[in-house]
Specification:
This protein has 16 helices and 13 strands. It is globular. The strands form 3 sheets. A 7-stranded mixed beta sheet has the order 3-9-8-7-6-4-5, sandwiched between helices. Strands 1-2-11 form a 3-stranded mixed beta sheet. 44% of the residues lie in helices and 16% in strands. The chain is of the alpha/beta class.
Length: 406
């Protein structure tokens, strides 16, 4: 057979790396049906109301729990930082990108979290990538809750250690896993508040087991800081176990009104991460506006506790009302309240019908949630009024009945 013919046949047998892309048509199909709920374009600030396609909607799909992203003091701090430092740092923290305000914010965060030291990253996702991959080596074990955030999962994948999971918020299963690796160096990582379920980690029980089996404990408190605790310091303050938590991770894109993240803990541990965390070393440093905004947000959290109090009044109202309407909200106990509807396509229809009623909510389907447990993810702000919340409940009641959910 001619060598060119053989070569052509061999080329025909080769797989194209883009083949998976051409086969992925789900998004197009949902768009044609008019039930594609992602990448919706917002034309305003993330307040209790937003503008989309020129229409005003009540926003219950934001993590802006304290309503600080549009706070005058936060915006003023960001603007002033740009005037002084410009829009970026043009390099990594490791080399030329460390400003005095980076150091000031780290010191402020360490004090706020009641830890020896803190280190700030450009995104919350990078915090978990950098911390976990630097701390967990080939002889170590990292133990995570099955519903931990994707950034934790990916941080584990980047590490060279053994990864073990336990059933969601199941203390007996956690102990089973700890027993299996009793004599190995190990780190347990839990979300303080779980971002889809809206429930809180059983930290006191987790702390006891970590002490019993000699494990270190890291809490990803992205959704807890500013929300939980007497002074807004998060899940560990909520349970009174701050001194028992080795590392606390937080993000700015929730209560802290910006983008980025941090890790806080013992000085030597933070210093190690600073020198071995690749996601930190090889990323450009957080921009001045972001840093200044976070600093201002911390001041507001400490000086305006009434915001957190109002957030919880709103949260308790919605928890009670959804249950009274007959919706399944699972184990929710925080400003994150999932409304479980069942099948994926039903969830898509539900969220788009809500949009027609003037409500912006989010949808979560498999694999973000278990199959058959698709949900409408709602979350609330201190700046929502009773009128906002009543309109939300009316819309849910109307759509829920129309689709046979209630």
């Amino acid at each position: 057979m001619d060598s060119k013919v053989v070569q052509n046949k061999q080329m025909d047998m080769r797989k194209d790396v883009f083949e998976k892309c051409f086969k992925f048509t789900t998004a197009y199909e949902l768009q044609k049906k008019g039930v594609y709920p992602y990448f919706r374009v917002i034309e305003s600030a993330q307040g209790p109301e937003v503008i989309m396609n020129g229409k005003k909607l009540i926003m219950i799909g934001s993590n802006n729990y304290l309503g600080l992203t549009n706070h005058p003091k936060v915006k003023e701090a960001a603007i002033n930082a740009i005037k002084k430092y410009g829009t970026g740092c043009a390099g990594s923290r490791f080399l030329n990108g460390t400003l005095d305000i980076h150091i000031e914010l780290e010191e402020k965060l360490a004090k706020f979290m009641r830890k020896e030291s803190a280190l700030i990253f450009s995104t919350g996702f990078q915090v978990n990538l950098g911390v976990i991959s630097s701390l967990i080596g080939k002889d170590d074990v990292v133990i995570i809750d099955k519903m931990d955030h994707a950034s934790i999962v990916d941080g584990c994948r980047l590490s060279f250690g053994e990864v073990k999971r336990y059933k969601h918020n199941d203390i007996e299963d956690l102990e089973r896993v700890l027993k299996e690796c009793n004599w190995k160096p190990k780190l347990v990582i839990v979300d303080g508040v779980f971002s889809m379920e809206g429930d809180i980690a059983k930290l006191p029980e987790v702390v006891k087991l970590c002490k019993k089996y000699g494990a270190r404990l890291m809490v990803d408190d992205a959704h807890g800081i500013g929300v939980l605790g007497q002074t807004g310091r998060g899940t560990s303050e909520h349970f009174g176990v701050e001194e028992d938590i080795d590392l606390v991770m937080g993000t700015y894109s929730k209560s802290l009104a910006s983008i980025g993240g941090f890790i806080a803990g013992a000085r030597d541990v933070i210093n190690y991460i600073k020198h071995f965390g690749r996601a930190f070393i090889f990323s450009a440093s957080p921009p001045p506006a972001s840093v200044a905004a976070v600093s201002a947000a911390i001041d507001i959290i400490e000086n305006e506790p009434e915001r957190r109090e109002q957030l919880w009044r709103n949260t308790n109202k919605m928890l009670k009302s959804f249950r009274e309407l007959g919706f399944d909200i699972g184990v929710a106990e925080t400003p994150i309240i999932p409304v479980i509807v069942g099948e994926d396509e039903l969830a898509f229809k539900f969220v788009m019908m809500l949009q027609e009623e003037g409500i912006f909510a989010n949808v979560a389907v498999s694999p973000a949630v278990p199959p058959g447990k698709a949900l409408i993810r709602t979350s609330y702000m201190a700046t929502h009024t009773d009128e906002h919340l009543d309109r939300v409940l009316e819309a849910f009641k109307k759509v829920g009945k129309a689709l046979g959910v209630i």
